[in-house]
Structures
1.
Amino acid sequence: RAVYPLLNPTPDALMPRRVVDVLVPVALDQTYSYSVPEGLDLTVGDVVTVPLAAREVTAVVWAENPNPDPRLHNRLKDISGKLDVPPLREELRRFVDWVSTYTLASRGMVARMTLRMGEHLGPERVRLGVRLVGAPPARMTAARARVLDLLSDGLLRPKSEAAKEAGVSVSVIEGLVDEGTLTVEPMPREKPMQPPDPAFAEPDFSPEQSAAAAEMHALAQKDDFAVALLDGVTGSGKTEVYFEAVAEIIRKGRQALILMPEIALTGQFLDRFSQRFGVRPIEWHSELTPRTRARNWLAVANGEAQIVVGARSALFLPYADLGLIVVDEEHDQAYKQSDGAHYHARDMAVVRGHIAKIPVVLSSATPSVETEVNARTGRYTRIALPSRFGGQHMPQIEAIDLRREGPPRGRFISPPLAEAVKFAVERREQALLFLNRRGYAPLTLCRACGHRFSCNICDAWLVDHRFRQRLVCHHCGFSMPRPHQCPQCGAEESLAAIGPGVERLQEEVANLFPEARTMVLSSDLITDIETMRSELNEIAEGRVDIIIGTQLVAKGHNFPRLNLVGVVDADLGLGNGDPRAAERTFQLLNQVIGRAGREQGRGVGYLQTHQPEHPVMKALVASDRKAFYDSEIEARERAAYPPFGRLAALIIAAANRPDAEGFARKLVGLAPREERVIVLGPAEAPLAVIKGRHRFRILVKSQRVFDLSGYLRTWLAAAPKTKGSLTLEVDIDPQSF
Ligand code: ADP
Ligand code: ZN
């Protein structure tokens, strides 16, 4: 019999109080019960603040708790307050639950992605402004004169800005207010966001685009789940075409999310959006200021923001009425998040679309093998754009066999490529040299004793960065000044740079083409998004002759005068034994060469390679995309790799190797028997040591139709807890395997 274990029941304790279960944004699955203070009007989904240990955290009411444990009854803490924002919709709460169940990331961690609205939420602070109204003050000073001069136009200015602009302290302004020379008035609220106009500038479509646009339109009209693959070659105008679906969503008054792999690179995209719809969309990514973040979060939640352009985390925003998701460049690696929660934003976009019963558009010139298979089997509808807009031809691609036509020792641009660049520059066209390697050289070696500079805490060479004059570890960020002497044998002048990075390539370009204007684009040389955007503009405006870049330049840009792309090391991504290497190389090279010849003239791509007979090179040279996918799909099917089987990786790391290996072995020993599953390993992870942590990997492979997440959950529930420096991460659908 349940009896209240209370010796002195107080009236308060006997009063049935309302209890709710709250999800807090910490790495836990469970919810916590809190009591609802009288008079607080709460519904499930409300965003609240609650006391947690010694802190106050923002959390979400996840469920009513009609039968709270009576023993807790009198000990529950109260909800402290409710934020003035719309409650999170059931659709989003189900999505959070789903992602957590599927990825094995804790529910609290997933919820945290939804609650990243920053501290600045709440009623907008009223800012005070000052305006010149009265007679000049009796006592005049130089500082006062500057303020009067600034405000002589009679306009209202924020107090602090007026002080800053006039170069005076706020007290000078306040003195003038006291004397009646200035008045203080509240600044008007920030303008509400202007809605995008679907008819602002409708494009003239080519017949091919018209057909695809009509399909987009029909898709967006359905209020139901469906996935379309917008499969168009580089320069076919995929953006203009999926804008038709976006336009339809705007007409319906609903919201659309456009996911982009690399938000820093979307400057041109934002311009195109405003040219088409008359206003800029809302952005969502990690570089927003806290104030903008809060404003955008709220605008999404209350439906004021109709279109969101965002990085993968934008999937977790609390849309008031999401009607469409577009995943641009759906094959891109950057969609995979691999810290905290491991998830693939493209796959989760499809899940979110399914839960919300809305259409999803995946756009790419080189779809992932998974998506291509889904399109072939009819699970996704393919909407094709097989030719370029404006009658432009696809670039012609040639291989340069480095075994026969390679550059002299210590140089990296072969004579035929150098010749082609020379012609391009002479014709006042642009050339792009692509090398997916940051820095000057990937390895520094002592010619006297053979010493190689490597990171002390990672299993990696230190990369020579000459612009920064440092050797840098690309895995942990460790860096040291470039040495002039070998630390091992003491020899001077003996250190040699081995292999090229973009900085070294620029040196070679400067020697070959001293007259040309060059620019290096590499993520480590970018200080902020605005600099990046302005550099890309300089290229687009033709103020650069030769662009030297890493994969940053491959993505999405339109450079009207670029007709030549030279891939300096086409084999770079192929040699690492990863089954996805061929697919990735094919996608990347296709994309970077796809920058050429988009607006005038014929684009040409050169692939410098040691293996021109490799299927990737052959498919590129023959422009035979189908052949590549055919053979790649067949290989995946033979090995039962995704999407024909399922994969998960368990990554075990520890401060020392025996701990990591021992735990990994114990874990494998505990794997539940299941004939539809194969457990491989443990083996050293592809990067065996990162930041001083030794890493082992267990690969779990299952049949396609199998609840792999459930299997892993059962397995890990029986495993010992990780202690000390040990960590265990689950990566469902790993991108390299
Ligand atoms: P993709 O993403 O398929 O590589 P984009 O959408 O970037 O191609 O389009 C390539 C170029 O063609 C862009 O400069 C775009 O503005 C232009 N373009 C595409 N379709 C049209 C159209 N119907 N009218 C005018 N310009 C177009
Ligand atoms: Zn390191």
2.
Amino acid sequence: LSMWSAVPAGPPDPILGISEAFKADKDPRRINLGVGAYRDENGKPYVLNAVKKAEEKITAAKLDKEYLPITGLAGFTNNAAKLAYGANSVPRNQNAIAVTQSISGTGALRIGGAFLARHYPHSKTIYVPSPTWGNHIPLFKDSGLEVKFYRYFDKKTVGLDFEGLKEDLKNAPEGAIVLLHACAHNPTGVDPTQSQWKEISNIVAEKKLFPFFDMAYQGFASGSTDYDAFAVRYFVSQGHQIALSQSFAKNMGLYGERVGAFSLTTADEEERKRVDSQLKIIVRPMYSNPPLHGAHIANTILSDPELYKEWEGEVKGMADRIINMRERLYQLLNKEFQTPGEWSHVKSQIGMFSFTGLNTEQCKALAEKAHIYMTMDGRISMAGLNGSNIEYFAQSVDAAVR
Ligand code: PLP
């Protein structure tokens, strides 16, 4: 008898399952709207020019392959914090941001979860939006936190349930941790407005909640890295201490390189050093130290003014292409096909994803009849749409809802 004969088969990952069904479908019209990775106008993965040029510089510099320190490449973490908090951030100028490189956004969230489970004095409960990125839930549970939900999405308006959100945060126990998507909420594509963020900040202050920002899409939502950092910077300006997860997967297209950062704002440099020492104690037994290559790429882009400029243009290019697809899809559904239903949310939502409002049955019909693959909650990756397939997609949605 094998040691593992009693191990039950786990459910397949819902998103990777979609990619497999897509690969098995040989119809030329097939479209994969499941995976959250950018595709160019030809439906192909996109390596940014800024990344290619940074790699050329790195190759020319003939760097060695020595280990990085436990918290990663110092130039990179410093530049990552500058990108998120802004060049003039008060805690940054006071040397009071504790930051470590991480295995992309997922690893940053995991380090954050572990740090809070071990050192946050007021609660072991984290409130996440309903719905949220599916991985948040097992990730925080495995970090040692209890996961609860606050209302976020209103099915009726296909928009933000702001009253529900406020009520749930007001009713959360004092001191609880609250996970906030900094921009481009996944999976809904619905973000609070700036004035709503201000109200959320007030509730977080009143209830002494601890804000943990997940910023996986800085620049990818609006096209501007400053605009997308509004919530993070506003909370810091209001005197909140925050935790922050950053990912360079989407905004630099570095998905498989696994480049990210986790940071905490602290009271002063002395406290920051103590927190840093504990971040090292969390990271060391998990993976010793982070990978080198992607951090060099991101750091080269962030520290070279010309590459930085080129990168900013390319981030904006990706965001703009998605925004154009939203506009086009809205025009097709609302005007050309006069598809039953209200479709303005397609336009008002932001970032990689759109919650279409399609139900499970309609999603299944799209897969079976039209070879169009998306998650069964009706979420589509806007980046999977382009000039060649968007009409077919809209036509198929039209058929599915009639
Ligand atoms: N957080 C959110 C909300 C995401 O959508 C993602 C990726 O889809 C991540 C974090 C982490 O991604 P990665 O680990 O690839 O940086």
3.
Amino acid sequence: MNSNEIDIHKELKKYFGFNQFKGLQEQVIKSILNKENTFVIMPTGGGKSLCYQLPALIQEGTAIVVSPLIALMKNQVDAIRSLSSENGIAHVLNSSLTKTEIAQVKKDITSGLTKLLYVAPESLTKEEYLNFLQTVPISFVAIDEAHCISEWGHDFRPEYRNLKGIIKQLGDVSIIGLTATATPKVQEDILKNLDMSDATTYKASFNRANLYYEVRTKTKNIESDIIRFIKQHKGKSGIIYCLSRKKVEAIAEVLQVNGISAVPYHAGLDAKTRAKHQDMFLMEDVDVVVATIAFGMGIDKPDVRFVIHHDIPKSLESYYQETGRAGRDGGEGHCLAYYSYKDVEKLEKFLSGKPVAEQEIGFALLQEVVAYAETSMSRRKFLLHYFGEEFDNETGDGGDMDDNVRNPKIKVEAKDQVVK
Ligand code: ADP
Ligand code: MG
């Protein structure tokens, strides 16, 4: 048995208090410790952070972690600090730091105390920081949310495109890319842009066996249909996604009038109201949040029992992320989407105001949503295929958990003929 193996289990327990690795974590960590370029694709909640945090903590030098959001970085730094008695074990380097704070960060890195340094991609381009980082030992560079590098992803950040050039200036360090975006196109883009075709890829399954997928045709009666659905799930937590703020307000009001406890959530509400509504949902003071896509990032309510799409999302990637908020605890999660071609045209109209390249990508992504909504094959099979994964409904977990499998369209027609 390899001594590495024994050690990483011990270190896992020591730093994180966990007895076991989750999914592919162990393989990924070994790959990182072997200084290999590594590409990690795991769904949200899969445990990607630990894949780079553990090797960073047990190796010489400082690991640089590139992350797109200051809030995410701060959360992670706080979490790491809580595992240690040394505040300096993890730092964020960004433009909001004072001169004194920057001096402290540099001191902690130089002394070898800092194991994880979180940076926004634009900070990494700063001469001053880059010059400094060239003088200290770097264990590896992890690029979290690596899909930000791709225009095919849902969160393109042009600054991510410069990363490879910058990392090269740090010398011969290995790169770890991590993302929850599983589409083959985005993966190709990531590998190409980071120039790491040699990377070992670790991809977890994206199958969410406990989620039931259903698409209903959107009609004039959608509101009463939604109310009936919610009343059938009385007292259960759910999220309803709408395209516009106006629709969010309108639906929340309709629900309230019909005796359903619901609050709206969108970026047009002030921060205090948003926080309040989010807390009400988390604390179960209300059952339902009616929201735009502004709601959900980082929200970890394990017992969301349904996610309704009042309007179709702009890509299957978003659909997967949004429906993925249901059934985190492994219990029931009903994902109901309403579909009408009129909504597709609306989304196309939005897109037509955008730059041409963005338009083309937007249309292509939208076509996949249309195909999903109109398919008569298993929704789960369709979704997983979109993520480059083959699924067999006979043998796969959750193989009968969608409307098309439960009520095949062709069979229904055949039955109708018999009755007539
Ligand atoms: P991701 O970045 O893939 O969305 P996170 O890194 O945020 O996921 O991890 C999700 C959750 O899983 C966290 O609460 C984390 O503490 C937990 N987790 C990670 N690894 C393990 C493990 N080996 N055992 C138990 N829980 C874990
Ligand atoms: Mg993450």
